[in-house]
TrEMBL record:
Matching Gene3D superfamilies: IlvD/EDD C-terminal domain-like
Positions of the Dihydroxy-acid/6-phosphogluconate dehydratase N-terminal domain: 37-345
Record family assignment: Belongs to the IlvD/Edd family.
Any GO MF annotation of the entry: lyase activity
Database matches in PANTHER family: HYPOTHETICAL DIHYDROXY-ACID DEHYDRATASE (EUROFUNG)-RELATED, HYPOTHETICAL DIHYDROXYACID DEHYDRATASE (EUROFUNG)-RELATED
PROSITE patterns: ILVD_EDD_1
Domain Dihydroxy-acid/6-phosphogluconate dehydratase C-terminal: 358-554
Catalytic EC class: lyase
Keyword Magnesium among UniProt keywords: no
Name used for this protein in its record: IlvD/Edd family dehydratase
Source species, domain of life: Bacteria
Length: 572
């Protein structure tokens, strides 16, 4: 076996160790499996408890065929899977654990490259973080969105329409019975959420980073072209090993630039901010929160998809997908960014047609001229907070109102519908205790449901501020990812009911109108402090002790950076 293959460190030679490594792996592998053929792991997040990824076994089979065909040895490697809708308290609590576990498995095993199969929100970010820290040649196959379901003849955007329908019930405009009836129509097929939520966003972002076959992101899960692309990806993985093209070669500063452009032009999820910061942190690429505003905020919004627009992911794919979008903003891309194919991303744009101008708008007539994510600063968010203007009400982007403060999500649920809650349409709802440390895990609760008494008066949006995240399928004038969070001694812990707060998105400021001298005298009250998590043991303890704040990606401090693929000690 040529020495350049990493797996040869396990399999080459005639000593007892090599004998053991080979003998236990034979089990039907071809005779020449250990003689110079690259061993390709297929990191599979398929799980019955991650329903969005449950079909990845079939995708893995197509990857296997491609690897075999190109002379490699495919080896399926189940990795930690995170089902967004099923896990409590929040799947984000384990993104770093999934990344750490995958990283260690990639490094510990005799593999030369890896194909990453993800879909549901946290799975692609975790796999990319792992691959970045190990540095083995890697390529992503996104599992794809589901087909669009309908209820009473109307398409359903999963996630987004759950929020919409549940608000209708609370407003008294939809019966509980009809709400329940819609449940069986929400999920039409295999695949992940069909809106431009976090899963779709991270597939698009993976492609913009150069980590998928160009043109693949957004291919619906039941579409036969997904299996065709999986097959090709298996072939490509063998080539990646031969070329020793690693994630660090592909995911450069130029690629992150393009990912931010793609995020803005597609109206992608705010969750991509923490995930991109974490992935960049693993690679040592100097990406900051402000880069999202600097690069993305003047990119036009071209994709009319829920939650910001009207269409759904199968429309996006039919209309031409990401490449058709990027072709419209080609001048904003960094042309030096490459892809797993070894060719620059911009090479794939020449024949990227847009087939539906309602779904993918021309550059000249965007849905919004300036999209992206705005980064806010001020005495309420010294390290930054973000807002997605495309998902907000234009009339609330500059707003002054009095705070109505909730110490944690339980406090919020207990009081939000209290008829005596001193709140009106101009109030600013403040929810704390939902950051990485405080919850723990930074859940998607920032898009707080509005007080019932205001819903009944027809109010559909208010300014909301939180140190947590917001579902990529949600919408509203929501300031999120406030850093430092309340549980990390951020000023959010000091806000009191009735304080004036000013949000000025054009000026990029978030201001608590309380003098510094008075703020210095304030301390968090006992209820606030009691709302913060203080786990005694296990992963939650480790997480709370080491998680960083949202503005640096909410990774664990000891996981940033890379350790490479070298294993220093023998096994026996
Ligand atoms: Fe899995 Fe939405 S719940 S992608």
């Amino acid at each position: 076996m040529p020495p350049e293959l990493r797996s040869a460190q396990w399999y080459a030679g005639t000593d007892r160790n090599a004998y053991i490594h080979r003998a236990w792996m034979r089990r039907g592998l071809p005779r020449d499996a250990f003689s110079g053929r690259p061993h390709i792991a297929i990191a599979n997040t398929a799980s019955d408890l991650t329903p969005c990824n449950a079909h990845l076994g079939e995708v893995a089979k197509s990857v296997r065929d491609g690897v075999h065909e190109s002379g490699g040895i495919p080896l399926e490697l189940p990795v930690v899977s995170l089902g967004e809708t099923q896990m409590r308290p929040t799947a984000m609590l384990w993104r770093n654990m999934a990344a750490m576990a995958a990283e260690e498995m990639f490094r510990a095993n005799p593999i030369d490259g890896v194909v990453l199969l993800g879909g549901c929100d946290k799975t692609i970010p975790a796999l990319l973080m792992a691959a970045a820290s190990v540095g083995l040649p890697a390529v992503v196959v996104p599992g794809g969105p589901m087909l669009t379901g309908t209820f009473r003849g109307r398409p359903l955007g999963c996630g987004t329409d759950v929020w919409r329908l549940s608000e209708e019930v609370r407003a008294g405009t939809l019966s509980q019975e009809d709400f329940t009836r819609s449940e069986s129509s929400m999920i039409r097929s295999r695949g992940h959420c069909n809106t431009m939520g976090t899963a779709s966003t991270m597939a698009v972002v993976a492609e913009a980073l150069g980590m998928t076959l160009p043109g693949l992101a957004g291919t619906p899960a039941p579409d036969s072209r997904l299996l065709e692309a999986a097959h090709e990806t298996g072939q490509l993985a063998v080539e990646l090993v031969a070329e020793q093209r690693t994630p660090a070669d592909v995911m450069t500063a130029a690629s992150f630039h393009n990912a931010i452009v793609a995020l803005a032009a597609t109206g992608g999820s705010t969750n991509a901010v923490v995930h991109l910061l974490a992935i960049a942190g693993r690679l040592g690429v100097p990406l900051s929160l402000d880069d999202f505003d600097r690069i993305g905020s003047h990119v036009p919004l071209l994709v009319d998809l829920l939650p910001a627009g009207t269409h759904l992911m199968d429309d996006f794919h039919r209309a031409g997908g990401l490449l058709a979008v990027l072709r419209e903003v080609r001048d904003l891309l960094d042309p030096t960014a490459t892809t797993v194919t070894g060719r620059p991303l911009v090479d794939f744009l020449d024949d990227a047609e847009s087939w539906d101008r309602e779904v993918i708008r021309p550059r000249e007539t965007p849905l919004q001229p300036d999209a992206g994510i705005a980064v806010l600063r001020g005495n309420l968010a010294p390290s930054g907070a973000i807002i997605k203007p495309a998902a907000a009400s234009p009339g609330l982007l500059q707003h002054r109102g009095r705070a109505v403060v909730f110490d944690n999500i339980e406090d919020f649920h207990a009081r939000v519908d209290d008829p005596d809650l001193p709140v009106d349409a101009d109030s600013v709802l403040v929810l704390r205790g939902c950051g990485p440390k405080g919850y723990p895990g930074m859940p998607e609760v920032s898009n707080m449901p509005l007080p019932r008494k205001l819903l009944e008066r027809g109010v559909r949006d208010m300014v909301r501020i939180c140190d947590g995240r917001m579902s990529g399928t949600a919408y509203g004038t929501v300031v999120l990812h406030v850093a430092p969070e309340a549980a990390a001694d951020g000023p959010l812990a000091l806000v009191r009911d009735g304080d004036w707060i000013t949000l000025d998105v054009p000026a990029r400021t978030l201001t608590l109108e309380v003098d510094d001298s008075e703020l210095a005298l304030r301390t968090p009250n006992k209820t606030t402090l009691d709302g913060f998590a203080n786990p005694g043991r296990g992963w939650e303890r480790l997480y709370v002790d080491h998680v960083t704040q949202a503005d640096t990606g909410a990774d664990l401090d000891f996981l940033t950076g890379s350790s490479g693929s070298a294993v220093s000690r023998e096994s026996h």
